[in-house]
Each structure stands twice: as C-alpha cells, then as structure tokens.
C-alpha cells in the first residue's frame, strides 16, 4: 500500500497518518498478542519515521510485558493500536483494524499458530509454528 493512509482508535483521541508504504498483513497468534487484541493480532507495519501520531489529549499508552516488546493502546477507549519490538525500533506494527479503509492490504501469513486458541482454524494461509 502506498503512503497517505491513516487511522484512529475507537474514540478518536489517538489518530495517525502514514507517509510510507505499509507491509501486507500478518496474523500473530502468540499469547501476548491474543491477550492484547482479544483474538489474534492482524497487523501491518511501517517505518517508524513514516508514522505520524496525533495525540492531543496524551492518551497513547505503552504496555511493555517484556523488555523487547511494547503494545500501544488508547488510554481512554482501550483500542489496541501498535506493536513495537525492541529489536526493530525502526519499524512499528499497526493493528490492521484501526486503519481507515480502503487499505489495499491483504493477509499473507499467520505466525505463532502453535499458541493459537483452540477455536481458531484457518487453512487458507501459510502457517508457521513460530515467527519465521
């Protein structure tokens, strides 16, 4: 997807725009992403320098369950927004559901399916036991 897209949390307190290209969507089934989103995380990614966050009420919060991962969410409505790994600070993952459509993106793979909940099965995607 080309730049110029954007999105926001449910209440609109945290909004963002993207100047650079977005990666296609990856589904992550790891236990942390499932707990953060309530299902699995379907996320795209962008260069952190190409992500402009508008947060006039200072509602963006970061939860860091481990040293090398941070989950960004709205402190007012609780919307899951971002993920950033300590080993990839130049890249920010964006929860695909908060992007304004049309996104032009497609889901291309699923990661950590070994940690997927027992209700989830989707045989049409390439699956990897852990992150490739």
From TrEMBL:
Family according to the record: Belongs to the Gfa family.
Protein name from the UniProt record: GFA family protein
Domain CENP-V/GFA residues, every copy: 4-132
SUPFAM superfamilies (UniProt xref): Mss4-like
Organism: Nocardioides anomalus
Matches recorded under InterPro entries: CENP-V/GFA (IPR006913), Mss4-like_sf (IPR011057)
Keyword annotations from UniProtKB, A to Z: Lyase, Metal-binding, Zinc
GO molecular function, one term: metal ion binding
